[in-house]
Amino acid sequence: MDQSVLQNIACLSDSTVHRLHAGQFALASLDWQDTFVGVLLLGISLLTLCVCLILMVKLLHSMLRGRIAVVIKTTVNAEYRFPFSVLVGYIAILLGCIMTILVQSSSIFTSALTPLAGIGVISLERIYPLTLGSNIGTTTTGILAALAADSSRIKHTLQISFCHLFFNVLGILMFYPLPFTRIPIQLAKILGNTTAKYRWFSVLYLICMFLLFPAAVFGLSMAGTVVFMVVLIPLLFVALVVIVVNVLQRKVPHVLPERLRNWLWLPEWMRSLDPLDRAIAAVVGRCGCCQRLCPPQTAHDASAMPTMREVSSQMNFIESRRSSCPSDSQSDLQAFENSAFNWTKDKQNGGATFITQL
Predict the structure, then answer these.
(1) Model pTM score
(2) What does each C-alpha distance from 287 to 199, 282, 292, 297, 306 come to in angstroms?
(3) Who has the most CB within 10 Å: 170, 284, 323, 358?
(4) What is the enclosing helix (H) or strand (E) of 355?
């Protein structure tokens, strides 16, 4: 570009206005404001992202079947003897770091792992160190950007990038080396089980954790230190007491008073999500479109699902049959495995029946 043009722009001169022209883009013919165009593009991008994720899950689910799925499960989720069992997690952290450095994005790496966990190929315990490694690998982008800064400012840019690196390293040291400190795994299981029971919980979780909670903390911080501490300290104390009581109820309930061994003495809305679930189901039931898209879950759905003990007994029986069957009866055993878990509609009561066939 001509240097005189830059000088005229810096001096706020109007001599270069005639050289400016509107850029061309896909939605230029709509004659909309930039705000509406941005909202439309945001909606299209989110829809495209969801469609790609759904198609990716379906594609992986169709590809990883039969012997391929068995080989991947036994290889990736293999349990090794000591001392190799200690090194497997750290190798997974290193692998996650390297893969994230190659793709330059931890979001891409974790998004690729999520469908694999959803179809049961990789266990949650194996994904956890891979995700921790991706958090380390994503800091390399900031370090490379800091190294490209001007020599007079490289000190400050490197400080910020290393803060990002050491923050993630400190998180790994806090929540991985010792097995009992791997709290995120248990929290992920709790959130997953809750979302499986209440499908709307995922939306509520995103709204609360990414919108309401940060907005509340920001508002309290703007109100002043005294207001922030007066509100935050009691809330943290109550949350800490509830967490400690829950842990004691599961581990050593006999040390608690009789009343604190369960939460049944509290109102239902304070100890369960069922009241909110019934309210949401009532709202969805009034909307015909929402009812067709999201059929309401009932207690019968949960009762119709097989328990983990039943599924475990089925799998143990299959393994015993596999070890005891001769080679010529493997086809019969495979037919048994394919028909062991089938869902059919019971026409008499309209419910789902779990069928076990021999």
Answers:
(1) 0.62
(2) 17, 9, 9, 15, 31
(3) 284
(4) strand 352-355
